[in-house]
Amino acid sequence: MKNIRNFSIIAHIDHGKSTLSDRFIQICGGLTKREMSNQVLDSMDLEKERGITIKAQGVTIKYINQNNKTFYLNFIDTPGHVDFSYEVSRSLSACEGALLIVDACQGVEAQTLATCNMALNMNLVVIPILNKIDLPTANIQKTTKEIEDIIGISSKDIIKCSAKTGKGIIDVLNKIITDIPAPIGSLHTKLQALIIDSWFDNYLGVISLIRIKNGILKIKERIQIVSTKKNYFVNQMGIFTPKSKNKKILKCGEIGWITCGIKDITAFSVGDTITLYNNPTKKIISGFQKIKPKIFAGLFPVNTEQYEVFRTALGKLSLNDSALFYEPENSHALGFGFKCGFLGLLHMEIIQARLEREYNLNIIATSPTVIYEIETTNKNIIYLNNPSNLSKLQKIKEFREPIAECNILTPPKYIGKIINLCLKKRGIQKNITYYEHQVILKYEIPISEIIINFFDQLKSISSGYASLEYNFKYFKKTDIVCLNILINSEKIDALSLILHRDNIYRKSKKIVEKIKSLLPRQQFNISIQAALGNNIIASSTVKQLRKNVLSKCYGGDVSRKKKLLQKQKIGKKKMKKIGNIKIPKETFFSILSN
Ligand code: GTP
Question: Does any domain span residue 429?
């Protein structure tokens, strides 16, 4: 155990975590040059495309230092986007140390500060690293000062490196050996292992990445999940180097994978503790908090026959994504689907893209809503995450909406614009702290306002420099209404929205215009109305049009005609027919995004 080091890499998005991890793997000979062709840790296709790390993954590498001593380094890559901070807490709970990477050109960002505090609170040793020092725009002095001032780490501990050129990487490896403590725990006590991550493999069934905190686990042994008392035989086990390597035993301090050849996707929940069936511990490993979803949206298969496939797919995705919530929902307009809970819009987009790509599903998403707390006159507390249920509620004393504490880190010159944006989003300023090159603005903002483009607007008004970190704080009294949308006088439940009463007339007008711009002209007039109860407060009409796609073809070229008809067919597929009206599937999601 003395020669094991377990650590996480935490940093803001794009500061170079994955590149640094790849450099470690290269130096320690985990892969050949050809195998290194792509960044290896970001293995999910979607991650590669978006260039962001979504899932935490653990890799074991063998490092021989200058004194010829061998060390086994287990590192867990973590995502850097604001939506995914729960993945960071999960990774940290399996480690004794963390590398805090700061891009020398960008400086400290809000997320970096938040994750660093999380690591320090969990008593992890934090090693600050200044990355990208090879770039001409790197400002080492300024960034070092920021790390000292804002994070509070002494500049003599900071290591400067370039994950791209490899400069300083050996210093980082040596610092990991000297500063991060070896894992503590006992080989001779009852088995206690933390499930860091679980995912589903079509051939092997459920695979779990685990950290052994105490004891030893051998292949073929019978294990028990402490929380559920369910038991299974370990079929196979091993480590990732990053190639998968089978092993017969995993010992205290090690991180590796196990599989029990089971298909029950709920059996190995992330954060659960594993012990031995014959000699069980009752102690659950603490420190890992399950995070609740922040936003909710209805997801419906365009093709109703795909409902069962959809249910199975959600089950598989939620296995290693404890923040993904789902329950059946029935919409008059869209049929059977699920009300799903997500951490933020990016999380929602990723789940939707994975459902479409990995499971070949065609999904309609309704516009997202937060969860509201409602107190009734007889003091019952109800939670509401579905706009169409609002009208069914009676005897309401008070509505409360979720408020987040936001920390915005920005260079001083953007403060004015940011304060205006926060005001527009019903924010209340709590604090401003000035540092030499940066300012931290602390605001309380309703989460319903944050989920609609707040992050993108913040980035755009600050030329990309401001960064945001936010956390749910409390429920606050509010005044909300349910806005119903009628299309040709028929209420479309999947288009209903919960909105703050402020400026409701202006907002409804905008929403109606937005729907108008999204609906294609059809062979009859389509009226769009927004209503509060029985009162129509905004309306518009999409004028009829007889569309003849073949009118563009002057000559009689058959293949060209076919191509146009084919194009129209594809266009049609993306529509949902409600009554006799075709509605593009984006409509349900994008009505709020203006
Ligand atoms: P997420 O996985 O999305 O959180 O990002 P990340 O922090 O893993 O960043 P990643 O390693 O993907 O690097 C982001 C970009 O910065 C890539 O284009 C890298 O090639 C580049 N990069 C990383 N480290 C260095 C460096 O030391 N120098 C230079 N010049 N570029 C670097």
Answer: yes
